[in-house]
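User: We ran a pulldown and think these components assemble together. Before we commit to crystallization trials, I'd like a predicted model of the whole complex to look at. Sequences follow.
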Amino acid sequence: MMGQVPLSWFLMLSAVLFSLGVAGFIFRRNIITMFMSIELILNAVNLTFITFAYQRQQVAGHLLAFFVMVVAAAEAAVGLAIILTIFKNRGTLNIDELNSMKN
Amino acid sequence: MQLWLIPALPLAGFLINGLFGRRFSKGLVNTFAIGSVVLAFLWVLKTLYSLGGLPAAYTEHYFTWIQSGALTIDCDFSVDRLTAVMLLVVTGIGSLIHIYSIGYMAHEGGYYRFFAYLNLFMFFMLTLVLAANYLVLFVGWEGVGLCSYLLIGFYFDKKFATDAGNKAFIVNRIGDFGFSLAVFLIFRQFGSLDFARVFAQAPGAPVGLLTLIGVLLMVGACGKSAQIPLYVWLPDAMAGPTPVSALIHAATMVTAGVYMTARSWVIYTHAPIAMDVIAYIGIATAFVAATIGLAQNDIKKVFAYSTVSQLGYMFVGVGCGAFSAGIYHLMTHAFFKALLFLGAGAVIHSLSGEQDMRKMGGLGTRIPWTCGVMFCASLAIAGFPFTSGFLSKDAILLAADHRAPWIYWVGVFTAGMTAFYVFRAFFMTFFGRYRGQEHHPHESPPVMLVPLVILAVLSLAGGYLFKIPDFLRAVFPPNEVPEELGPMAVASAAGLLGIALAYLMYVLKPGIPDSIASGAKGLYTLVYNKYFVDEIYDWVVVKPVVGGSRLVLWKGADVGLIDGIVNGIGARAKGIGGVLRLAQSGNARSYATWVAFGSVLVIFLMALAGGLR
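Assistant: Here's a predicted model for the assembly, 716 residues in total across the polymer chains.
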């Protein structure tokens, strides 16, 4: 089944997803989009973990993937709540208009 | 015997007047200030009486002051016959001058401050003479220097007074540097600073080291006792009130160097070269200061140079091995020079502050008592036969003759000059006609006159009342000099000649001095300007130090180097920060970009290094 697909393909897919996530995070201005990009990055990393766990026949990779998913779920809950509050207060989701870290 | 009470009494007076004197009436200030000193005098008398003839030194141990490794410094006081003489001189003359000051300072500001300082001086001076080791002596030594500084600059709103105070303090630092080195060497060689232990071991020490110690001690004595080349501070020190000039800068503090040298006689007798140096410096100082005294017009300056000159005599005495003669002259000089200064103070007081002798004259009939006591003092310092000054000066000159005849002859010539300039001052002040503005000179109050009269009696007869050479025979090594009539007669004749010459030039033919001054103009200018020594020191020492400090230390090291480093670090931090703050945009996405680039860079570097294994 997976045996026919070389491992490097999975890693390539993971790298592509990761790069898409990073690019999305950097170039998009909508916070929701950026948030989704972070999820993409996390899941790209998860894919890498799983790939290596399969290759090496070690359970640690699976475990880490579950950890990441739990953290991602928690992050999603908190993050969406923050985004909701920001939108209520500022009336916008454009990251460039939410620049309050300076001054 | 409670020796500690002797210095403690003036200290109590200082503390009371210094802390609360501002609120006291003058009467109360007087009570504490004079009372404490007179009580100290009485306690000295009682102590000496109960100690009998003081056949040997009597020491009291109070506590261990410093205990560090091999170094043990005890706080000890000790009395032997030498100390007894100093104690009597310091407390006796000190009491008289304190009493005199009541009258002299009556109209001055800072009354309580003056007496507080004077009491503090008495405390340190008594500590100095009572000390049983070099370090306690040094405490007193520095303390009297401090009081001297405070009292020279007593009129601190006048710049010349504060300058003179600074000069005295700084010049004394040079001497104290030598003294400290000597103390270090003494400890290194003998392992102790106690007089008794040092002097017991001194005969076995190497002569070269003893000579070095002796010369360094003498450097300290030169500073304190105003000898060449460090005498320049004493004439300027006359900026202080006149009682201070009498007590500190004539009778007691400036003789501390002579006392210390005489105290260290064991070291000196085993270091003949050091003794020769002392005698040479002493005779040179006596001569040079006397020549300067010839041409001064400020009455206090004349007596200041005379003090320097007489201190030179004491050094000659000590340097020629006649320690008791030096101390003898120290005592008689304390009598007549204190009287000269106090008399000059009475003259200045009666003229409301005039010090220039060219504006005096004819005061003999207006202030006869002052004139009379000044006459006694002048006779004594001129070495008029059978006054106390005659006895002590002859003792020194005889010892000098025994040691090296040329010192004797220079000393005799100096004695003639001494008689001349003192009587010049006397005649200019009290004879002739009054040359000042219309003014009514008034005789001083009894509180000033009584000390003057007592000192006048002591100036004439003190040499017989206190036969110091006999009294100190137990302390010092025998230095038997045959009593020869010839040298004595020559010295007296020189003094009488000086008096006669002064009488001729300033009473009979008042035109002579001016014609001499214009005839030998170059010489007169040189002497009148004190050989330009102050100017030479200014050019050779002060200006290079100030210039070097300004250019090298201030502009170079401080501004250039230290400030440069500090400011440079600040400027670099600011510059780097200015560049780095551009990265702090506050924009989350740009931070993310940096993180991404950073990660890529790290991974790239790891790949270059061969990757993770």
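Chain A is about 75% helix and 0% strand. That may be worth checking against your pulldown data before setting up trials.

User: Thanks, that helps.
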